[in-house]
Specification:
- By secondary structure, this protein is an all-alpha fold.
- The protein has one domain.
- α3 packs across α7.
- The chain is flat and about 85 Å long.
- The termini are far apart.
Length: 231
């Protein structure tokens, strides 16, 4: 009888511990989702690209851009676990990223402005080349934002270390919540633009692209200014 009671008590304790761990993992997931969603909703180069590209390529733009963004973030999470954070927190890294990102955004904006006179609204069916371009754009636009790197080297790192208390499962729940928030927001933006695309004329489309290009110039100038501030 004593052995049976002990086994039952042990089983109850294990079930309680498992429930506590599951509750903690779900808390990590939902808090990560909310924090990431609040960041994703702020205007930035990735949002600008989602709006401009969705008008041509449709809803798939959002998920593909976030897939590229997510690939880079997954690599960064592993790098932070391996001790990359001190390097990313250096002032020189911020300055180099700010100036490099500014140059990339100006180059993208220049290409958009240059294409305006001949730009026509036409549906570009999804194909392997377009998918690869959008994946690469998601990576490039993330790298172009110095504040993305700083966020991961500070807030993101703190969250990873907290999640690591629960091992790889903790980090997995954190990352899942984070990337799903990005996917939910940018997918919603892409869907909204795609639905509105049917009401766009060539003139309105060129105005939309010009506006997006102008925003990229603003972000480029802001990043360059932030870089000069750190010199």
């Amino acid at each position: 009888m004593n052995a049976a009671r002990a086994a039952r008590a042990c089983g109850i304790e294990k079930a309680e511990r498992d429930l506590q761990v599951l509750t903690a993992l779900l808390a990590i997931f939902f808090s990560s989702f909310v924090i990431a969603l609040s960041g994703a909703m702020m205007p930035g180069p990735l949002l600008t690209a989602t709006i401009s590209e969705s008008s041509r390529r449709g809803f798939v733009t959002g998920p593909l851009l976030i897939a590229g963004h997510g690939i880079l973030e997954m690599a960064l999470v592993f790098s932070l676990l391996l001790g990359l954070a001190p390097f990313l927190q250096q002032r020189s890294v911020f300055v180099a990223t700010a100036f490099g990102g500014s140059a990339i955004l100006l180059w993208m904006a220049f290409g958009m402005f240059r294409s305006l006179p001949s730009l026509r609204l036409s549906w570009e069916a999804g194909n392997a080349d377009n998918s690869k371009k959008l994946l690469f754009s998601g990576i490039l636009l993330s790298l172009a934002n110095p504040y993305w790197i700083i966020w991961w080297a500070t807030i993101g790192l703190g969250y990873i270390l907290y999640s690591w208390q629960y091992g790889l499962w903790g980090v997995a729940f954190f990352f899942a919540g984070h990337i799903l928030a990005d996917l939910a927001w940018y997918g919603a933006v892409a869907a909204a633009v795609t639905r509105g695309r049917h009401f766009l004329t060539d003139r309105l489309y060129r105005g939309l692209i010009a506006g997006c290009a102008a925003f990229l110039v603003v972000f480029a100038c802001y990043f360059a200014y932030a870089g000069f501030q750190k010199l």
